[in-house]
Amino acid sequence: MMEWLTPLIVPFIVLNAILGIVTYVTLLERKFAARMQSRVGPYRVGPHGLLQPIADAIKLMMKEDVVPTAADRPVYNLAPIVFLIPCMLIFATIPFAPGLGVADLNIGILFFLAVSAMEIVGLFMAGWGSNNKYALLSAMRAVNQVISYDLPFIFAALVPVLLAGSLRLSEIAVAQAGLWFVFYPVIGQLAFVAFIVSTVAAENRAPFDILEAESELVAGFRVEYSGMKFAIIQLGEYAHVVGASFLGALLFLGAWAGPGPEWLGPVWFLVKAMFVFLLVTWVRWSFVRIRVDQILALSWKALLPATLVLLIATAVVVVWRGTPGV
Amino acid sequence: MSTIAPSTRVELDYTGSERLTMNMGPQHPSAHGVFRAILTLEGEQVVGIDAVIGYLHRCHEKLAETLTYAQYPSIASKTDYVAAMTSEFAYVRAAAMIGKIEVPKRAQYLRVIAAELQRVASHLLWLGTWCLDMGGALGGGATVFLYCIREREFILDLFESLVGARLLYGFYQVGGVRYDLPPGWAEQCRETVDFIDRRIGEYERMLEDNPFFLVRTQGVGVISRELAQGVGISGPLVRGSGVNYDIRRTEPYSSYEDFDFRVPVETGGDCYARYRVRMVEFRESLKIVRQALDRLPEGPISSRPGLKSVAQIRIPKGEAYARVEGARGEVGCYLIADGSAKPYRMKWRGASFSNLAILPHIIPGHKVADVVAIMGSVDPVFGEVDR
Questions:
Q1: What residues of chain A, 75 to 134, have a C-beta less than 8 Å from chain B?
Q2: Contact predicate A199/A280, CB 8 Å
Q3: Which residues in chain A have their CB less than 8 angstroms from residue B141's CB?
Q4: Do the bridges between strand B172-173 and strand B45-52 make them parallel or antiparallel, or are there none, so unpaired?
Q5: Count of structural domains within chain A
Q6: Which among B136, B146, B372 is the nearest to A39, CB-wise?
Q7: CA–CA distance, B3 with A317 (Å, rounded to integer)
Q8: Chain B within 8 Å of A56 (Cβ-Cβ)?
Q9: Residue A242 belongs to a domain
Q10: How far apart, in whole angstroms, are the C-alpha atoms of residue B373 and residue B213?
Q11: Under 8 Å CB-to-CB from B372, ≥6 apart: which residues?
Q12: How far is A311 from chain B (nearest CA, A)?
């Protein structure tokens, strides 16, 4: 009788769950980074700093919203929203458990990759609309980098697709019931490493964070943003990383598969996604940033040919075995 | 004289129509204080840099004329606040040279211990901030920075128990040093030295096994031997370009001839060579501290004990230039005394000030990201540049 409500309620729940996860992922990263650097990390707000993300959010909401006089106002104001929407939309096709998801499209992974690449529009709008030279340089770098790294990202993500023989994310997850794709001999490990590297780069995380590059460009494309607009950009960025972590856990780590009753599935999925997220974070806090030309060289000269070869090799293996699946 | 091209612009095969002028500083995360670099960019490439300094000018040289020989050493700390001991050292040496004041052997050794610990502390801060420049406050650089700061704290603890201050000391006095070692200090110092020695090995492994660190530093900001000698840079910069010049060795002062240490020289001239020089200097400084503690002679710590008033020290008429090897290079103090309790005129030769002159020669042609890497490898402290 309430059939018509379902398409409204499910996205609402998922969206809020994702917002909660994304908010607390910042705390996880800060605690993890603090441990790496032999610090304690946030500790004062709430027990063990557990309320820190909420305090941060309130602080950002209370901040004055400063718009530069010379900014291109419509572009400047629209940019955070344009940036946030694709970052949240990527969660639409992810099944968090069998049948638990907003839309299990038959081209789920294609949708994910296409929408995920859209974030660049918001980035460039922010960089251009701010009318700031640091932001402009950062936006130019962003376009360079995202175009360069989306291709290896896609190729690496297509390896599990070939192995599973489906573009539907739930079917890729089910195909790993016997063997997680990360354990698939040779191909699985190489694809996982390529996926992690290109995730770090495509999400603009250090050591590939040349668009933020606070030692040269101060804060890059978001240098002129403050208050809630800044918070929205941050939120979008973290949502994107978390989305890519979920994708990594789904493509390589068997999604919701794990010991225990079936209802633990989403929990296992979250744990695996956080594992991927911490891998990315670990890389972030260990390396110095590399230069823009070196980043591009790494992508076009090494990562792109490597993932392409890997993809072809996977195809050959699948054809040789005669059937997709493990 | 070598011939150094005065041009700071390089011509590139650039097809764009406009050059971008970008202001880096004086308020900028990696300005190392208040340095303003006006960059001319062609895309990502820097074709010109105009350096603007003077934002931290505090009239130090005029101030020195109004303070007595007993007062000024504490203020001298404030020129180079990262290696505060060094400038005090240069000042008291200049005064002692004019007055022909003998410094007791124990005081000389204590001066060496303080100066070398200060060099280690300063290099630790350099390593941290340089990695911060390249790796970002929100990346791997911050990790190295926090490790280095943690180690620097141990040296500051030593200074605190010796002098009572952690940043600006006033330890050196004309004719000696102000304080003797408190009980137990030598043991604490030895432990700290051993500890830092171990940790430096860890950082070396962490950085040198890191391909990203290598691609960011090798071949970046190359200073040729000729350029290094022509521009007048000193310290680790000139030693990274194949010039064997260290005042502790070429013109030993304060008993440096007693100690066995190596002056590291690298021939690469790039950021990586300067990094290597400083990493070896860490070890050599720690070695000198160990030797000085082992052979520390007994005796008075000053040739003018029992200071009763700040105007007690009078230096006869004369002038002198004293130089010491600071963490950043040659720190010189030129002093003219008129026989009263205050100098007639004083002039600093800041190592950072002279080292900064290299920037327009090596930065054009590099990417924007390299500007901060090169700046960091020069290791300027703006208190010393602007004075």
A1: 133-134
A2: yes
A3: 215, 288-289
A4: unpaired
A5: 1
A6: B146
A7: 64
A8: no
A9: yes
A10: 11
A11: A215, A216, B30, B133, B134
A12: 26
Give the Cβ contact number of residue B95 at 10 Å: 26
Provide the domain limits for residue A131: 64-321
> In CATH, what is the architecture of B60-386?
Orthogonal Bundle (1.10)
User: Which residue(s) pair with B42 in the sheet?
Assistant: B45
- Residue A53, in any domain of the structure: no
Nearest CA in chain B to A298: B212
The angle at the Cα of A136, spanning A132 to A139, to the nearest 5 degrees, equals 140
Distance CA B110, CA B300 (A): 11
The residues facing B322 across adjacent strands are B333
Q: Is residue A193 part of a domain?
A: yes
Residue A54 lies in a domain: no
Of A133, A141, A290, which is closest to B20 when you measure between CB atoms?
Answer: A133
A207 in contact with B at a CB cutoff of 8 Å?
A: yes
CA end-to-end span of chain A: 42
The residue ranges of every structural domain in chain B are 60-386
Joined together, the tokens standing for residue B252 give 């030993």
The CA-atom distances, in angstroms, between A99 and each of A5, A102, A104, A105, B130 are: 17, 9, 8, 12, 51
Output the tens digit of pLDDT for each of chain B's 387 residues.
344 444 444 455 555 567 778 888 788 877 777 888 888 888 788 888 888 888 888 888 889 889 888 888 888 888 888 888 888 899 999 988 898 888 888 889 999 999 999 999 999 999 888 888 887 666 677 888 888 888 899 999 999 999 888 888 888 888 888 888 888 898 999 999 999 998 888 888 888 888 888 888 888 888 888 888 888 888 898 898 888 888 888 888 888 888 888 888 888 888 899 999 999 998 999 999 999 999 888 888 887 766 666 667 778 888 999 999 888 889 999 999 888 888 899 999 888 888 888 888 888 888 888 888 888 888 888 888 888
Distance from the Cα of A168 to chain B's closest Cα (Å) equals: 35
Which helix (H) or strand (E) segment holds residue B177: the answer is strand B176-177
What length does chain A have?
326
Taking one residue from A and the other from B, the number of pairs with CB-CB distance under 8 angstroms is 112
Quote ipTM for the complex: 0.76
Q: Is A38 on the interface with B (CB under 8 A)?
A: yes
Tell me whether residues B22 and A209 touch, CB distance under 8 A: no
Helix (H, G, I), strand (E, B) or coil at B20: strand
Instruction: With CA atoms as reference, report the closest residue to A222 among B138, B34, B213.
Output: B138
What's the CA gap between B245 and B224, in Å, rounded? 15
Q: Determine what percent of chain A falls in helix, strand and coil, rounding each to the nearest 5.
A: 70, 0, 30
* A63 in contact with B, Cβ within 8 Å: no
